[in-house]
Amino acid sequence: MNQQLAHLLQLGLAIFIMSSSGTLGRYIELPPPVTIWLRCIIGAVALFIVLKVGKFDLRIGNRKNFWLLFGSSLLLAGHWVSYFYSLKLSTVAIGMLSLFTYPVITAFLEPVMLKIPFQKSSLALGILAFVGVALLAPELSFENEHTLGIAIGVFSALCYSIRNILMKKRVAQQSGITLMFYQLLFISLFLWPVLFGFEFEPAQLSTDWEALLILGLFTTATGHTLLVLSFKHFTVSTVSVISALTPLLGILLGFLVLNEIPAGRTYIGGSLIFLTVVTESLKSIFQKRN
Q: Has residue 148 been placed in a domain?
């Protein structure tokens, strides 16, 4: 019982830490690809030190494992970059709520990718979730930045969902810290050309360095690694239920740090998204128990 409580507290800490991503994404003024590159460099260095000190196994395994890590890293890079663009175009509340359509998207994709039975109730919940997303938009036009931010946020959720499905089996077979290190390392290699393709003033680094360190060391290296480790002690569905707290905590941080107050439609749309995520996750838990 005490051990299970410790695992639950570990997962809760991961969710709390990761909820800072929305506020940090809005606060840092660098172009999102540059921010993500620096985030991954900082996180990869931190995890490499942990791996060396802890004498973890750094071997990837066979070629199949390498290409799985490579592909999932591309998806994670796409998820992070598009998520930060979504935050730049909208608000912490809209960006995070758009992203947290991913558990419902997973409910659609998992049966197809892992060849498990599809459930009709997931279709109804999926429709409800996207009604919630539509309510977030002030108008159905991509000329509106908030609407464009929502669309990019849902794309980010799609990337995150596919990445999680691909990584699901690997977490049980290899150290979560090792997997996260290689994903950060690969993303650092993918994105280094952004330093030449995006214009930014070096002075921005001097103003954003504290937020970048928090994002790299705290949100990424610590938060995401704790979340990956949690899959060894809880089902993906249980993690999804608790993860639904992330946008709520993120919106609270956005209010406290950036003074962002969500609009009325955001409360309604957010409530529908939150309802579908929790319902789908709880449904999965009870089905597994039976």
A: yes
Helices 236-243 & 2-18, crossing angle to 10 degrees?
Answer: 50
In a domain, 20, yes or no: no
Nearest partner of 250 among 274, 284, 279, judged by Cα: 274
Print the domain residue range for 59: 31-289
pLDDT in the model for residue 290: 54
| Contacts of the segment 251-256: beta carbons below 8 A, 24+ positions apart | 251/22, 251/92, 251/93, 251/96, 253/19, 253/20, 253/22, 253/23, 253/92, 254/22, 254/23, 254/26, 254/91, 254/92, 254/93
State pLDDT tens for residues 26-85: 999 899 999 999 999 999 999 999 999 988 878 877 777 788 889 999 999 999 999 999
Nearest one of 134, 126, 125 to 266, comparing CA atoms: 134
DSSP letter string over 119-169?
-HHHHHHHHHHHHHHHHH-SSS-TTSHHHHHHHHHHHHHHHHHHHHHHHHH
Structure tokens at 180: 């996260």
- In angstroms, the CA 215 to CA 264 distance is 30
Q: Residue 66: inside a domain, yes or no?
A: yes
CB atoms within 10 A of CB 184: 28
The parts of the chain modelled with pLDDT lower than 50 are 1
